[in-house]
Amino acid sequence: MSTKSKTKLEYIWLDGYKPTQSLRSKTKVVRDFGGSLEDCPMWSFDGSSTEQAPGGSSDCLLQPVALFPDPARTNAYLVMCEVLSPDGTPHPTNGRATIDDDDNDFWFGFEQEYFLWVPETNKPLGFPAQGYPAPQGQYYCSVGAKNAFGRHIVEEHLDYCLAAGINVEGINAEVATGQWEFQVFSKGAKAAGDQVWVARYLLERTAEKYNVAINWHCKPLGATDWNGSGMHANFSNSLLRTAGSKEVYETVCKAFSPLVKEHIEVYGADNHLRLTGKHETQSIDKFSFGVSDRGASIRIPIATVENGWKGWLEDRRPNSAADPYKVAARIIKTVKTVPAYATVNGR
User: Fold this and answer.
1) What is the pLDDT of residues 278-336, one digit of tens each?
2) 80 forms bridges with which residues in the sheet?
3) Same-domain status, 132 and 193
4) How far is CA 213 from CA 43, 168, 207, 290, in A?
5) What are phi and psi of 79, to 5 degrees?
6) Spatial separation of the C-alpha atoms in residues 146 and 133, rounded to whole Å
């Protein structure tokens, strides 16, 4: 049979490791693939090897939920999956299933920071084998061999994402040596999470070719003056996009204040190392909001104000290793407690 009638489907899912889940994937070769999500069959995997099932009853199910062309392989697609238990219900590790946004009223833009990491030295790309490079300051949005490290990986990743149909809206070198960022936006919380995870997968696989790892930890350089990594969550819904009122925005922000613990629980492990009140963060045990304030828990963008208080908010607390599904689910749950939300959405 001709290889042209065969298609590679890369099934991607999240494992059960704690406190931070990892990406897993495996390839299914199918014949005469139709090219749609509906043509992707349910599959299974050994959950006892991913901390998701005991050895005596190890099967977990993979439910395809999003499909992207795989630009790095011939006749191939990337299949993002939810993990289900054998009875077809969402597995306890399935954060996507907790999102209450069936009408896609919530829009999310995630700013994903990360470090390119050298396994041999256990340091960021661009760090000398001994000691440190010049202090941060020259690396942010930089150019040149003394300032920007790993651009070939970052550019290749961007091209792959765009070819796959992932809505990456930008990239930039970040504050620390070897630190970069990409931004993903989608109308619909589940779709936004799908795209972040597939973009992360493509980044891991791209860097793998160059024997470079991706360090998602929020403070990989420990208690130093080097910046940590975040995944700022920009979000809006009908209420925020049409409010036209400073009071509505303040009411929404204030709804987050008594729920600091609940949000921090899903905003990524070790966030206390990053949310110190320094390096453009608020302290982990405090809550604040303000216009154009990057030291606040939630920033009200100046563009929102200039647009007559119609726009979005930015929660700056989620860290680089957080699960965008769980972050979105928690934000949506909080916003839905605001009385004005029910009025705008007819509930």
Assistant:
1) 877 889 999 999 999 889 999 999 999 999 999 999 999 999 999 999 999 999 999 99
2) 12, 66
3) yes
4) 28, 21, 6, 36
5) -120, 105
6) 10
Q: Look up the domain containing 10 and give its range.
A: 3-94
Residue 218's SS3 state is: coil
Residue 124 token pair: 């960021």
Cα separation of 326 and 95, whole Å?
A: 5
CATH of the domain at 7: 3.10.20.70
DSSP H helices in 72-118: none
Kind plus residue range of the DSSP H or E element containing 80: strand 76-84
Residues 22 and 137 in one domain: no
Residues 207 and 165: their CA atoms lie apart, in Å, by: 20
Q: How many folded domains does the chain comprise?
A: 2
**In this predicted model, what pLDDT tens digit does every residue of 73-131 receive, in sequence order?**
999 999 999 999 999 999 999 999 999 999 999 999 999 999 999 999 999 999 998 89
Place of tokens 């809206």: 169
Q: For strand 313-315 and strand 231-236, is the pairing parallel, antiparallel, or unpaired?
A: antiparallel
